[in-house]
Structures are given as structure tokens and as C-alpha cells.
Amino acid sequence: MCLAVPAKIMETGDGAAVVELGGVRREISLMLIDDVSVGEWVIVHAGFAIEKLSEEEAEQTLALFREIAEADSSGDS
């Protein structure tokens, strides 16, 4: 299964960006979207930014991911 996740742009340059999610930084490609700036949020899939989204949308999505992870970890017993 593939999953796309929101990440915050921390640096940009030459068709690439460094994004951060949960304290982890990773370089991604910006080949599929235009006009991305530091501080904006994007959806990242397979190392590519595929769409911009608002900070509110990103936070809502990340909150849902946390809820799913917590529910899954509570069922491990």
C-alpha cells in the first residue's frame, strides 16, 4: 500500500526541497508542482511533492494519522 503524507517545506533549490515531518528531514522532488515556498505544506508521495495544502489541512491529516497509530498500538496487547 502506498501512502502520501503532508510535510512542511524547510528549504528549496533547483527543483528539490527539504521537508520535515515529525522531526525527520528528507529531500524530495518538486518536479510535479510549481511555486512552492519555505514554510508551505505539501503532500509527499514516493519522494515527490504532488500537491500543496494549507497548514490547517496538514494538521488535520496528521492528527488523524496519530489517532490511527494510537488505536493500532492500543490493540497490540
In words, what does this structure look like?
The protein has 77 residues and is of the alpha+beta class. It has a single domain (5-74), classed as SH3 type barrels (Roll), CATH 2.30.30. It has 1 helix and 5 strands. A 5-stranded antiparallel beta sheet has the order 3-2-1-4-5, covered by helices on one side.
Helices and strands, with pairings:
Elements: E1 5-13, E2 16-21, E3 24-29, E4 41-45, E5 48-53, H1 55-74
Taking all Cα atoms into account, the compactness measure Rg is 14 Å
Number of domains: 1
The CATH topology is SH3 type barrels
Order of helices and strands: EEEEEH
- State the CATH class: Mainly Beta
Largest sheet entry: 5 strands, antiparallel
Structural class: alpha+beta
Q: Estimate the strand proportion.
A: 35-45%
Q: Give the helix level as a range of percent.
A: 25-40%
Number of strands: 5
Mean pLDDT: 92
Low-confidence stretches: none
Distance between the termini: 25 Å
Short description:
The chain has about 80 residues and is an alpha+beta fold. It contains one helix and five strands, in the order E-E-E-E-E-H.
Which tags fit this structure?
77 residues, 26% helix, alpha+beta, SH3 type barrels, 5 strands, 1 helix
